[in-house]
Automatic annotation (TrEMBL):
InterPro entries: NAD(P)-bd_dom_sf, P5C_Rdtase_cat_N, STEAP_metalloreductase. One of its GO terms (cellular component) is plasma membrane. Signal peptide: none annotated. It comes from Scylla olivacea (Orange mud crab). This is Pyrroline-5-carboxylate reductase catalytic N-terminal domain-containing protein.
Amino acid sequence: MDNLSFGTDEVGLVDMGGAGTNGVGAHGKSKAAHNPDKVVAVLGSGDYGRAISRRLVSAGYNVLIGSRDPNRSKIKTLVRQTGATLTGQDAAIEEAAMVVVAVGRDHYDHLPLSLLQGKILIDVSNNTERRKGPHYRSNAEYLQGLVQDGKVVKGFNVLSAYALENGGLQGSKEVFLAGDHADAKMKVSEMVRAMGFHPVDWGNLAASRDIEDVPLRLMPSWKRPVAVVFGIFVFLWILAFFSFQICRNIQSGQWDENWKRIPLTNFNRVIAITALWTLAFCYIPGKYPYLHAMVL
């Protein structure tokens, strides 16, 4: 599956005031709802932050994208396309019940941590490499350590920005969740369903270590099929080599013929036959029960 891209995420200590910008969205006014549970702050205005904001807006949530520099014209233009409200990070956090932390782990220390206390924090970050060891903590666990009174829930990291924008039309619609607070996971699960995805509870926050490793796995369920197909290819290539090169040269008594066929003719034939065998192995077993029922 594709890792999260934080692109131009705006992180760091925020502009407290931002007069003339805080609380001003694409339509020129705050979109904060009367129902605080439907207000979500997204910290980070990069590719992923904007993608999840757009999806949340489509799901009926009032989204406040918190940026450390909401006055930048480029950010205003990009955020306007999402339908969310662009504001400073402080203002976004204060109005929201849930906060999506769409910045990298290295930037957690620069967030307004005191304002995040008591909030439901959704950590969507990914690792760039697998980290193990007795003292290893996942990104979500690290964030929980910084905001001890917050309720951190790991989620959405297995979805790319493309999947969020397209509603999971291609790829999995499952969103793995992990957290130590059942009430927080319940609210995040409701959000996931509203966005058109399926929440899967992986347990407490320690399970976030495994969730963060999921995008780093290269097609884990493909190992055996790839080995089988490779085995078929090798078998057919050896068969073709003996048929076209060894046997024919023995018959002709000359050993200077057909060698030029190895890189092109042999390879093309073997690839074609391997494809036919693979398709046969995939589809013929499924047809057997129908044939068996017709005969009986």
